[in-house]
Amino acid sequence: MNILRVRDYASVSEKAKNIVLDRISDFSDTTIALPTGNTPDMMYSLLVKEYQSGKVDFSDVVIFNLDEYVGMDPENPYSYNYYIHNRFLKHVKTERSYVPNGLAEDLDRECEAYEDKIKEEGNLDLALLGIGRNGHIGFNEPGTSFDSLTHVTDLSEDTMEANARFFPRDLDFPEKAITMGLKTIMGAREIILLASGNEKANAIREMILGEVTENLPASILQTHKNCNVIIDGDAASLLGNST
Ligand code: GLP
Questions:
Q1: Residues 155-169: pLDDT tens digits?
Q2: How confident is the model at residue 34 (pLDDT cuts 50, 70, 90)?
Q3: Among residues 65, 110, 136, 228, which one is catalytic?
Q4: Phi, psi dihedrals of residue 192, rounded to the nearest 5°
Q5: Looking at domain 2-231, which of 3.30.70.270, 3.40.190.10, 3.30.2000.10, 3.40.50.1360 is its CATH number?
Q6: Domain boundaries in the chain?
Q7: Contact at 8 Å (CB) between 176 and 154?
Q8: Backbone angles phi, psi at 125, to 5 degrees
Q9: 133 CA distance to ligand 1 middle (Å)
């Protein structure tokens, strides 16, 4: 793991944006997994700005969203499909983009098809990740097998509590999601995880310094050959001087 400590949230976003731009210009036909959440928000605006000023071209980039809520209409403003379109995909021209369909009648088949699609596209070159405060990545909650592929998962109480903040009261918070599995994510040639704020400090400490355990899904990243972790001072606050 390569730990990049930067000052604040804006610097996390700037650094992540620069790495994405580098990778896109280094390779043609890049396949990228993208996260949702508050953390990558500013990185997406920066990428869109660069695109609008003509400094970057995503036309040979293929996008896979990491996850989606089960039962959520893609047009629903709280769906991850809506998020990624609204923040990023509607502003830039990509080659192709995919988001799991949380309304699929046969969810297991949807998961298999998603996994197959990633293979067909030549596997992931880059996976961008956020992290949940319980150490989840994508929606791989504590206890998820390190061998997991794209699958349907029950959301943990902690995740539902953390994410329900963004939901209106009259909309029931989904209890399940489709997520790329840990093995799917680990199959990416490069991984970049972003974290900002005190709320993530404990998960970041465990991910970097703790044991590699399915109880803290992000700890698997210690075993990836090319993983950059970009964190601000608050997210790094429990790391001491050890990294
Ligand atoms: C959700 C997503 C994750 C994301 C996490 C943290 O659970 N499935 O991919 O990393 O939230 O989100 P935030 O960046 O808003 O803290």
A1: 989 888 888 877 887
A2: very high
A3: 136
A4: -125, 120
A5: 3.40.50.1360
A6: 2-231
A7: yes
A8: -80, -40
A9: 9
* Number of alpha carbons in the 13 Å side-chain half-sphere of residue 193: 30
Rounded Cα–Cα distance for residues 88 and 47 (Å): 8
Whether the model clears a pTM of 0.90, i.e. scores above it, the answer is: yes
Residues with CB under 6 A from ligand 1: 35-39, 66-67, 130-132, 138-139, 159, 163
Q: Is 141 a catalytic residue?
A: yes
User: How many A from CA of 112 to the centre of ligand 1?
Assistant: 23
User: What distance in angstroms lies between residue 130's CA and the mean position of ligand 1's atoms?
Assistant: 6
- pLDDT at site 25: 83
Q: What is the pLDDT of residues 215-240, one digit of tens each?
A: 999 999 999 999 999 999 999 999 98
